[in-house]
Each structure stands twice: as structure tokens, then as C-alpha cells.
Amino acid sequence: MTSVFFTYPLEVIRVRMAFQTRSPAKSTSSLPPSFSQTFFKIYHEHSAVLQSSPAQIVPTNPKHYFNRFPLLKFYRGFTVTLTGMIPYAGVAFLSWGFLRARFLSPSKAGHASPTPIADLAIGAVSGAIAQTMSYPFEVVRRRMQVGGLTCPDRWLRWGETVGAVWHSGGWKGFFVGLSIGYLKVVPMTAVSFAVWQGGKRVLGV
Questions:
Q1: pTM of the model
Q2: Do the Cβ atoms of 172 and 67 come closer than 8 Å?
Q3: pLDDT tens digits along 88-140
Q4: How far apart are CA 12 and CA 45, in angstroms?
Q5: Which of 66, 120, 127, 189, CA to CA, is 20 to 30 A from 25?
Q6: Quick check: 45 and 73 in contact, CB under 8 A?
Q7: Dist CA 86 CA 88 (whole Å)
Q8: What confidence category does residue 64 fall into, taking pLDDT thresholds of 50, 70 and 90?
Q9: What is the mean pLDDT of residues 58-71?
Q10: Is the Cβ–Cβ distance between 140 and 77 less than 8 Å?
């Protein structure tokens, strides 16, 4: 959680760069926005003073917390990320421990000895289970991270974000893109667990 706090702004910038694949309309360049362009775009997103007439020019509100503390804009969806870490990390380690005890337990006769291939396989299964359990949090987090494009003057709340996902696709809307998530998380988790277990063998711990 501590590491996520310091690296989360980079995650928000990465998501916005992936979401906004073209430069702003006023730009003549067709290249995607750069890191610095995305950073300053998020930093300068201002809150507005609501006016009774939509035809009036809407000035920025200097007293709004987003304008007083611009770095808060880089923490959209942060609470969802911290909450999603619980099922993801918990389920990943639970699956890893259960599957190793079930198939690679050294205290039971007839069980295979742990090998790097076995560690990779069990790590891959653990990653797939954890990704499936925590993916709805991932969808909500992405929605909130790009909320600065649609609602630059406020945070997107949990309730309205979950409601928007539900109304757009029902329960299936919380699993849109899960197959792509598998392509990233499954090999990453497999390699992470395998390297961790291999390091323990080398060090004799």
C-alpha cells in the first residue's frame, strides 16, 4: 500500500495516455500525447463555478480543492486500488499455498517434487483466479481514473461509477477486457512466484 501511494500518479498518467490515443484537437500533430503533455493536462484540469445559464462563460473556481491541491487529481480511483489489493493479493497467495500443499507437499508420499515448471503452472493458476476475483475493482478503478475527462471538477464516487458500469453492461460489464487481463497478469504472477520460490531454493530457506 505504501509503494502504491508513491507510484499511483504514474499509473493514472499511463491509463490516461492509453485512453487518449490522439493529441488534443487544437494540436496539428496526429501523434499520441506524450508523458509531459498528459501530466500537464491532468494538472491543469480545473473545477468550474456552476452558473444558472449554460450560455454564460464558466470561470474556474480557485477555492475548489482540485484547484487548491492539483496533485489530488493524480489520485483518482486510489481507494478502489487499495481495496482491490485485498482480494487480489489475498486470493493469489491463498491459491498458491493451497495448490502447493495439494500437489507438491513434501510431507505426503507420492507427491511430485517442486520444480520450476510446477511453480510456473501453480503461479499461473493462482494469478488467473486472483485476477478473476478482483477484476471488477479494476474496471471501476479505470473508470474513475479517466473521470477527469468527463468530470474534471469532482471525484467520481464509488456508487455512481458502479452504477454506470452496471447500466452499460450489467454484471458482464464488470468483466469487460478480462481476457486481456489474463494475458498480462497470468504470466506475470507465474514468473513472480516461480522466481520467488527458486530464490528460496538457491538460498536454502
A1: 0.69
A2: no
A3: 989 999 999 999 888 887 666 656 677 889 999 999 999 999 999 999 999 99
A4: 14
A5: 66
A6: yes
A7: 6
A8: low
A9: 64
A10: yes
pLDDT > 90: what percent of the chain?
32
What's the grid cell of residue 81?
486500488
- Output the pLDDT for position 101: 87
CA-to-CA dists, residue 8 to 5, 150, 182, angstroms = 6, 20, 22
> What's the pLDDT at 49?
45
Distance of CA 45 to the CA centre of its chain: 22
- Across the chain, what does the average pLDDT equal? 82
Q: Is 165 exposed, middle or buried (0-12, 13-18, 19+ CB in 10 A)?
A: buried
Given a contact cutoff of 8 angstroms between Cβ atoms, the answer to whether 1 and 85 are in contact is: yes
Residues in the chain: 205
Packing angle of the helix pair 178-203, 116-145 (nearest 10 deg): 140
- State the chain's maximal CA–CA distance in angstroms: 79
The SS3 assignment for 94 reads: helix
Three-state SS at 20: coil
